[in-house]
TrEMBL record:
<keyword id="KW-0274">FAD</keyword>
<dbReference type="GO" id="GO:0090524">
    <property type="term" value="F:cytochrome-b5 reductase activity, acting on NADH"/>
</dbReference>
<feature type="binding site">
    <location>
        <position position="86"/>
    </location>
    <ligand>
        <name>FAD</name>
    </ligand>
</feature>
<feature type="binding site">
    <location>
        <position position="87"/>
    </location>
    <ligand>
        <name>FAD</name>
    </ligand>
</feature>
<feature type="domain" description="Flavoprotein pyridine nucleotide cytochrome reductase-like FAD-binding">
    <location>
        <begin position="37"/>
        <end position="94"/>
    </location>
</feature>
<keyword id="KW-0285">Flavoprotein</keyword>
<protein>
    <recommendedName>
        <fullName>cytochrome-b5 reductase</fullName>
        <ecNumber>1.6.2.2</ecNumber>
    </recommendedName>
</protein>
<dbReference type="InterPro" id="IPR001834">
    <property type="entry name" value="CBR-like"/>
</dbReference>
<dbReference type="InterPro" id="IPR008333">
    <property type="entry name" value="Cbr1-like_FAD-bd_dom"/>
</dbReference>
<dbReference type="InterPro" id="IPR017938">
    <property type="entry name" value="Riboflavin_synthase-like_b-brl"/>
</dbReference>
<dbReference type="Pfam" id="PF00970">
    <property type="entry name" value="FAD_binding_6"/>
</dbReference>
<feature type="binding site">
    <location>
        <position position="88"/>
    </location>
    <ligand>
        <name>FAD</name>
    </ligand>
</feature>
<keyword id="KW-0560">Oxidoreductase</keyword>
Length: 96
């Protein structure tokens, strides 16, 4: 189990405003903090690239992430937290 959060946000008049939050419950990321997702599968693509598939709360959910988003992954190993920050690179349409 790991937790993910998107960093797609901007600041307007010293107020943080997250984008892509108006589509309702269909989007798995709500941009308000970490949310746990179960890692379903890791598919090797190239020697330095893997495709990580995570299980959402329901089968009809989409990630809701846009191109130029980043994902911050928090994981636990040996009782200690670790973090991985990576750009989000979509490989399918936003409906998937």
């Amino acid at each position: 189990m790991c937790s993910l959060v998107s960093s797609k946000s901007r600041t307007v008049d010293n107020q943080r405003t997250d984008t892509f939050t108006t589509a309702g419950d269909k989007k798995a990321f709500d941009f308000r903090g970490f949310k746990p997702f179960k890692l379903q599968k890791v598919e090797p693509i190239k020697h330095n690239t893997n495709l990580y598939r995570f299980q959402f709360d329901s089968p009809d959910q989409i990630s809701g992430l846009a191109i130029s988003s980043h994902v911050l992954i928090r994981y636990t190993t040996g009782g200690l937290f670790g973090y991985v920050f990576r750009p989000y690179s979509p490989i399918s349409t936003h409906q998937m």
